[in-house]
Amino acid sequence: MSRSRRRAAAPTGNRSVLAGFLSLLGEFLITLGLVLALFVAYSLWWTNVLADRQASARGDEVRQLWTRPPTAGAQAAPGALDTQGGVGFLHVPAMRNGEVLVKRGTAPDVLNDGVAGYYTEPVKAGLPWDASGNFSLAAHRDGHGAKFHNIDKVKNGDAVVFETRDTWYVYKVFAELRQTSKYNVDVISAVPKESGKTAPGRYITLTTCTPVYTSKYRYIVWGELVRTEKVDAKRTPPAELR
User: Fold this and answer.
1) Non-local CB neighbours of 128 within 8 Å, separated by 6+ positions
2) What is this structure's pTM?
3) Dist. CA 117–CA 124, nearest whole Å
4) Superfamily for 51-70+79-241?
5) Which residues cross the membrane (predicted)?
């Protein structure tokens, strides 16, 4: 083969190598895309399935416990209901998410079980049966049950109901803060700042991540207790839940 012909053949060989590389790159990117899609599906769907199963089982255990007579020597005060399984159930009709088991703490190993947790740090939450305080709760907005996914549907005047073994606590939403720093702990203070309240009361605060699919900021909803109802033998819910 002449030198001129060898020069002409070289570019064709380079194009073949480049085409092969691009083909391999394309296959890699497709595979990577599938892996990422599976990861997203796991994070946003399968973790919800697992968390909902876990929360349902724990909730059944709590309700079963409530049907048993109190153990000898147990305190009669509602604080005695703070069992390892959960203190009660949160109902927020505007979220359309059914009942949400509430447990102690807001660490990932608590919230990842598809429940809401009440704060024990950096500010300790007041409990509904306290004379005053802020019953401040957190739950995931996406994945792991996503119990507060629809928090943006909650508006002023909406009902938030907390159910314990013997009492329904009925709150009315009075304010919301759609975005604040994740480090803003004042929103869960006993008298929550930025809520408009300046005096002690019996408040409830719902907190979760925002925007959707991120954890950059926090979304806050505040409510105030308007009344309580004793639980009857049939556990008839208050009017707000019928």
Assistant:
1) 78, 88, 135, 162, 164, 167, 169, 202, 204, 225
2) 0.80
3) 12
4) Sortase (2.40.260.10)
5) 21-46
Is position 37 annotated as part of the catalytic site? no
Q: CA 213, 218, 219, 222 torsion: positive or negative? A: positive
Instruction: Work out the percent of the chain whose per-residue pLDDT is above 70.
Output: 78
Give the model's pLDDT for residue 84: 61
**How many residues does the structure list for the chain?**
242
Which pLDDT belongs to residue 31?
A: 65
For 193, other C-beta atoms within 10 Å of its C-beta total: 14
Could you tell me whether strands 88-91 and 133-138 are parallel, antiparallel, or unpaired per DSSP bridges?
unpaired
Catalytic residue among 160, 187, 209, 220: 209
* Band (79; pLDDT cuts 50, 70, 90): very low
Tell me which long-range contacts 99-102 makes (C-beta under 8 A, separation of at least 24).
Answer: 99/59, 99/163, 100/55, 100/139, 100/147, 101/55, 101/58, 101/59, 101/62, 102/137, 102/162
